[in-house]
Amino acid sequence: APSTRLKQQSKASFPHAAEISFCENAEAGAAIGEAWTVETMDKCSIAYTEKQLRIDIERGVGANPKIRWPSRSSPLAKLAVSNGFTVTKTQKNKPARSTGEEASPSPELQHEFTIAIPPHSALLFPCQRATTIDAASDCQVLVKHLIVLDGTWAKAHRMYHENPWLQLVPHVKVEADRVSLYGEVRHEPKAGCMSTIESIVVAMKELGEDETGLDRVLAVFESMIAEQRRCKDENWKPKLKS
Question: Which residues does the UniProt record annotate as the domain DTW (predicted)?
């Protein structure tokens, strides 16, 4: 399965970072300052300046809104990759149901998370637009940090579509030359797929990280798979009648 181990950091960590706000259940094309460029689409809108991006998605829209993004050569996109950016996700509260009693007031926006994406981050995700790490390097794309979506393949795809800000970072993938160790425990959707930890190890090796330490991580994972296999075999043994 494809994980983000992103720490919640303050904007002070990256003082020149871009700022991205992402709001669900919002009104597409809501009023905003004159300095912003606004593009309204079906059920969603984006507004941006050279340093800020706001995404508003209306209530009831599925997990894959069709968003037209600023060009990757735009000042905002370049700033986000080179200087990093912070993402703040909020959600507009649904109107309270009438119960005959006066509803307690609640804030209009509910804060879900704020995370800081370091400069020169890339998403490790095997989608159509992803390139190999070597190909990214050949195209002068500097990768210092990896964002990885951790979960089953179905959950990883859902996370990808539910966080459209991921479109701002380069996408990279690894090409497996062996069968995944995890294939003995869980069925992979197609040949060449790897577990989260295996894909991270392969990617970090390609980025030049210490192979000895990474091989140790993989050895621990392999021992976990062996234990899961043993438990599975024991559970499937026919029980003897007394």
Answer: 40-233
Residue 161 in domain? yes
Question: pLDDT tens-digit profile of 164-194?
Answer: 888 889 999 998 777 777 766 666 666 667 8
Check whether residue 128 and residue 145 sit in a common domain: yes
Q: Does residue 175 lie in a domain region? A: yes
Rounded CA separation 133/120 (Å): 13
Both structure tokens of 167: 């479109």
Q: Residue 83 belongs to what domain range?
A: 36-95+106-119
Does residue 155 sit in the same domain as residue 167?
yes
2 strand-pairing partners:
none
3-class secondary-structure state, position 48: strand
**CA 181 to chain CA mean position, Å:** 24
Strand, coil or helix: what is 38? Answer: strand
10 Å CB burial of residue 140 (0-12, 13-18, 19+) is: exposed
Question: What are 37's strand-pairing partners?
Answer: 48
Whether the predicted model's global pTM rises above the 0.70 cut: yes
